Amino acid sequence: MEKQQGQLVRSLSLGAATILVVSSVIGSGVYKKVGPMSEQLMSPDLVLVAWVLAGIISLCGALSNAEIAGMLADSGGEYVYFRKIYGKFMAFIWGWTTFAVIKTGAIAGIAYVFTQSLNAMVPLPHLPESIENIEFLVFKPFENAGVKAVCMLLILALTLLNARGLRGGAGLSTWITRFVILSLGLIVISGLFFGGGSFENFRTPSVNFVLRDWSDFTFIKALFAALLAAFWAYEGWNTVGFLGGEIKNPHRNLPLALGAGLLIIMGAYALVNFTYLYVMPIDEIIRVQQDQNEIAAIAVIRYFAGPTGVTLISLIILITTLGCTNATILMPPRVYYAMARDGLFFKRAAEIHPKYHTPNPALWMQGVWACLLVLSGTFDQLTDMLIFAAFFFYGATAFGVFIMRIREPETERPYRVWGYPIVPALFVLFCVALIVITCINSPREAGLGVVLMLTGVPFYFWWTRGR
After folding, report:
1. pLDDT at position 170 over 70
2. Distances (CA, A) of 119 to 88, 114, 285, 314
């Protein structure tokens, strides 16, 4: 008897798509990444410049992505775009990398911060030190065992929620995003008016700060390392494109959702991180960064609000990262579904649940692999690895704008990238620079990212054999 097959349904409005952009981006980075950025740049004004610069660059990428998304809106996002622009092999490598590191790494990283925040409220258990220090290749899978166990339980629980229907997952993201925006506003107001901070904190660099020219390569490396951290906080803006087959009027609403969502995020990040640097001296923030189980936002709130404030901010981070983990789990399986329909992924990933209209096998494949990545490393290792991989493909999407303008000049474009050709060209050049400097600054994370990307090559030849 043939198995009954469901289908994807266009049910998301412009407002819902914009909410999903915001909810899939605002997660752990706004609370966590001011620490490594401060450690790299050692000057509050430079840290804020890096946040704004990362936002502007991400917006250039989103504007470039929006032109392609408007032309080729369908479930699968960049997989659909790359298949049209570069052919099946490039599309497959992007989709495989999304599965192997980019989105599964993002799920693991965000869920990790959720559990770190829970750990700040209720200390989670550890295994004996002799077990936690066991090393497998370059990993310590049992380090922070309690944190990692809860992290994996969260991933599996949210995977189950999203397997029960798009409406439930999207509804959770909507309510959590509203809460997150209100909470970030509360952090800004309480920090600026009751935090006991001063502009002197914002104007005073670290005691170890050395003033360097912007053309100095040491400064450039530090700036790009800080941008790599900031980009984690902006990561996820493109994932709404994965739902192109489930958005109403996607050719119009997909580009609008990308632009509006990213502008909201940029404003929120600038205000919140200014508040951190206004309240707490940068040397204190750098000290917080040394403890891998501490979160900068919690340290800042503890600085002026004590244990009660810590409990409140921990709850806010729990709910925020819950929403972001949920949104990040919800969208990528549509990519694996599109690949499987083309015979370029595990066959079962092409199945849609007949009742819930969700790609359930793809959701569970993603959830299990994300749990294995949780075991593989710390939060910062995961995020550096995935950002390196992601920007290779972001640059390829932006370059695709030029290819499609030449190849199909008459094709209808519901949205044309603002500032063409300068905006997409600058974004492509930046992606190249980020990749090169990451290879210099973080060779281990870059190397792991490349290895995970290349593991897809034998699968591609296996799935295309005989064609």
Report:
1. no
2. 44, 9, 19, 9
